[in-house]
Amino acid sequence: MAEAVVSIVLEGLSKLIIQELKSLKSLGGVGGKVESAQTQLQFMQGYLKDADARQGHNEAVRIWVASVRDAAFDLEDTIETFVLKVASKREASVLTRFTGFFIKKVHLHQIGSDIQKITTKISQLSSSLPSYNLHQTRESGGDTFFQRQQERRIAYPHIVEPHVVALARGTEILATHLIKELGPRVVSIWGMGGLGKTTLAKQVYHHGEVKRHFDCFAWVCISQLCQGREVLKEILTKLISPTNEQRQEIADLGKDQIAERLWNTQRERKCLVVLDDIWTSDAWSSLQAGFPMNEETGSRILLTTRNKEVAWCADKNGFLFEPQLLNDDESWELFEKIAMFGTEDTNHKIYEHKKELGTKMLQHCKGLPLAVTVLAGLLARKDTVDEWNTVHKNIDAYIRRGTYLGPDYKGEGYEGVSWLLELSYDNLPYYLKLCFLYLAHFPEDYEIPVSTLTKLWMAEGFISSVSVEVMEDVSYMCLSELVGRCMVQVGKHGSSKKIKTCHLHDLMRDLCMLKAKEGNFVHIVNYSVALETKETPNGRVRRLAIYLDQTVEAYCPRRDENHGHVRSLLYFVPEYFVNSKVLSRSLLKNFTLLRVLKFEGAYNGECKLPHEIGNLVHLRLLSVKNSPISVVPSSIANLVCLQTLDLRSAYAYIKIPNGNVFAKMEKLRHIYLPSLYNARGKRLLFAAGAVNLHTIVNICIQASDLDDFVKLTNLRKLGVITFDGGENKEKWTNIIFKHLHSLSVDYGNISGLLWNIVLSCPNIYKLQLEGRIRELPEGLMFLTNLTKLSLRRFGNLKDDHIKVLEKLPSLRMLFAIIGNFPASLICSEGGFPFLKFLSLDCLEDLKEWKVEKGAMPSLCRLHIVHCLNLEEVPDGLQYITTLKELTIKRMPSEFCSRLGEGGEDFYKIQHVQSVIITNIRSG
Asked: Which residues form a coiled coil (predicted)?
């Protein structure tokens, strides 16, 4: 992690604050000393990646890495503390140019001395580099540690695993694509480490049809070190089976000549080349010249990788297959084959006892085939139930490390899962390592909102925007890359198919926690576990995650040697947590270097956000969403570095001091206001320089706001809770929100001027309208990206309005909640062509509904809720073969009885896989 820390610190030092420091002649040489420290860190930067990878295996290297990391942090802290002192002496913005008057008020000699001490420490660490042999990098092949890692990854195709489970289907699918005439040039197997990619590839490689189809075969294991010429030579040698004379001839050829021969061989014969465990797009690029990718031949490539981008780069039209985790039955089948072979025949009672223990232990494997194999392989050598009990008691250590390093450890001679997953971590670029480690903040089984996560990364300084790229887009791409590298798993997708939530596989989370602890990245205080299990931090704490429960009266971390440098403080509270003492004055006084303060979810109680919040001038993210905050102090205006401010609360009235409170926040990108606040009818002013404002939620818009909104050209999300366009409608009509993706409006009458604003958003994909709808303009059909539409508390929709809705070209999700549809609703043939989810909720007048054949051909989920006058599910539902889920909720018993087997409407829904009927209304 030191590589990542140093890279981020160096990047930060090159930005605005250091530019300001260096620009002033009155700084007494401070700028020069900062430059000297930067130079020393840059010198060591090239060695840190290998040092990070080695530190788990070498205590001396671990100490050295920790020292470099702390020195980089010390330099960053010292400079930010200096900036804080300057800021406290004046009223101007922190980021404006310092004046000599205020510089005289701080101790330049002290700041210079502190930086000099840090520089000396860094220099000493640099001088000690030769003793660690870090110059022998993995590329030179001079490091036995990396050689061993390479050897451990080699898979031999002639050695076929004796125990395989749940691979038959995947084997057939892959074999079919490989032998298909005019099929894909590249067939890829993609997935996380330990998922069984190589095992599956071997099954395909030895498949009878595959063996008969191809003339010659080559299997090469690429791993993390790919030497293009040597790999191409190995492939060519295996394909043509050369004589000794030909071998010598090939050995004398250059890379381009080898590539040409390999190319021609694959054109002349049907060749199957397996590239096992290829990690990077660069590795593929170094091999690509040897493959006739732009010609149709009978030769094929079977590729295994942890990185989805590699498969995409190899062949954009290729076939990509992702093996799935084992389910419980499959896990047990694999486990039993390895660990319990023949046990049932010897002693049935022992077998049953072991089966009970084995079933419990398998829950920790979470369906990862390697974890199941590791566990089963260990237990296969343990005969007694007592030995199995010992493993059960320490199951996590056994699976992760392959052994329980306890007082009775004697060395089991086998390896666990962590080393294999760790290879994926080591291969990450420095910025992705930080993004991955940040996931250690979140509790186990926590479904992480992507929108929140990416904003946290930005606030921490992990994300930098280059050229015209927007930071939010770069941040999302980082998440996508972690998903593509199988480090993070997708939870839910949004209506636009973007990732909405994510989480970690349990074993990947174990790795994340291990690396976070190893690098002292975050310290977790967990009040939901016994006090004696709490760990004290190992050194200075930069980030704190606090897991509270209902028994905590108040918690504030102490300002001491370990906690004095906290940059990030995230609270996690249980549902309906009640406590108004957590955000205390002492917290806000002591931790003035905070960049992130996140306290959400305390629904009840009431308190004021302390005035001392204004001391946190380095704060980038402040979220008190659904917390008991009733008053926001005027001092919040001091938070000029703030990027994200979340004050949302659906349960409390929040007092905001005045409309100018946000006027100095030039860095503001996302602001979420409460749905109830005292600024209704008042004008909220945003900073003239806040050109990157992307999100405004729960704002009251009036005619006087027009000039402000004209400046907000980069808005992507806008939520309006009251709207008064005034008399000057032409100016409103001329506004075009070309970047707006999401718009929600809560307004009495949705018509005229408001529709003009909606239609001025050509890229909108999410629209929520709450209020009486007098019309649905045909112009909606020109919003070609609109995928999600919510209509709430609407008035009478007419038949011609439905015709507009069903012609929306990209609509995938439609919510109609509390309103009046026509009494007789007809969905026309060809209507709603891409709709996948439809929810009808509290539609009072809806009585009859008919779905013509060919309507809603893509519908997967249908919810009907509290539509009390609807007599039956629509005729024509039986034609929608894509329908997988039907939910009926709070509907009359007569309606529900028609859906049961033998009921009048059963024929309409008998093809639906899941029919859920709940909260039936009687009478």
From this structure: none
- Please report, for residues 94, 437, 818, 880, the alpha-carbon distance to residue 911 in angstroms, rounded to integers and kept in the order given: 65, 45, 29, 9
Q: How would you label 103-130 residue by residue, b for 16+ Cβ within 10 Å and e otherwise?
A: beebebeebbebbeebbebbeebbeeee
For the stretch 647-685, pLDDT in tens is: 988 666 788 887 678 888 888 999 998 887 765 556 677
Q: Which residues are CB-contacts of 260 (< 8 A; sequence separation ≥ 6)?
A: none
For 262-309, give the DSSP string: HHHHHHHS-EEEEEEEE--HHHHHHHGGGS-TTS--S-EEEEEES-HH
Per-residue pLDDT for 531 more than 70?
A: no
Residue 790 near residue 769, CB atoms below 8 Å: yes
Q: Given the DSSP bridges, would you call strands 501-503 and 448-449 parallel, antiparallel or unpaired?
A: antiparallel
Angle separating helix axes 168-179 and 197-205, nearest 10 degrees = 60
Q: Please tell me the distance from the alpha carbon of residue 452 to that of residue 586, in angstroms, as a whole number.
A: 26
Backbone angles phi, psi at 428, to 5 degrees: -70, 145
Work out the number of other CB atoms within 10 angstroms of the CB of residue 426: 18
Residue 131 per-residue DSSP state: G
Is 489 strand, coil or helix?
Answer: strand
Provide the angle, in degrees to the nearest 10, between the axes of the packed helices 506-518 and 430-437: 110
> H or E stretch including 850?
strand 848-851
Backbone angles phi, psi at 479, to 5 degrees: -65, -45
pLDDT in tens, 320-361: 999 999 999 999 999 988 888 665 556 788 888 889 999 999
Q: Is the pLDDT of residue 92 over 70?
A: no
Pair of tokens at residue 521: 């990245």
**3 state SS of 74:** helix
Greater pLDDT, 402 or 509: 509
Say which residues have a Cβ less than 8 Å from residue 420's Cβ, sequence separation at least 6: 193, 194, 370
Residue (of 594, 504, 578) closest to 543 by Cα position: 594
pLDDT of residue 903: 93
- CB-based contact 501:447 (threshold 8 Å): yes
What is the distance between the alpha carbons of residues 865 and 659, in angstroms, rounded to a whole number? 41
Distance separating alpha carbons of residues 8 and 473, to the nearest angstrom: 19
Higher pLDDT, 661 or 153: 661
Residue 536, C-beta contacts closer than 8 angstroms, at least 6 positions apart: 562
Residue written as tokens 């788990």?
A: 56
Distance CA 518, CA 59 (A): 12
Yes or no: say if 855 and 877 are a contact pair by the CB < 8 Å rule: no
Across the chain, mean pLDDT equals: 81
The three-state secondary structure class of 237 is: helix
Give the model's confidence band at 108: pLDDT under 50 very low, under 70 low, under 90 confident, else very high.
low
In one-letter notation, the amino acid at residue 456 is: L
Strands 186-190 and 543-547: unpaired
Contact 790, 762 (CB under 8 A): no
- Give per-residue pLDDT as tens, 702-717: 766 666 777 787 889 9
Residue written as tokens 């004055």? 585
pTM: 0.83
φ, ψ dihedrals at 83, nearest 5°: -60, -40
Coil, strand or helix: which one is 428? coil
Tell me the mean pLDDT in the region 618-626: 91
**Nearest to 336, CA basis, from 361, 311, 305:** 361
Indicate the burial class of 643 (C-beta count within 10 angstroms; 0-12, 13-18, 19 or more). Answer: buried
Burial 2-38 (b: 16+ CB within 10 A, else e): bbbbbbbbbebbeeebbebbeeeeebeebbebbebbb
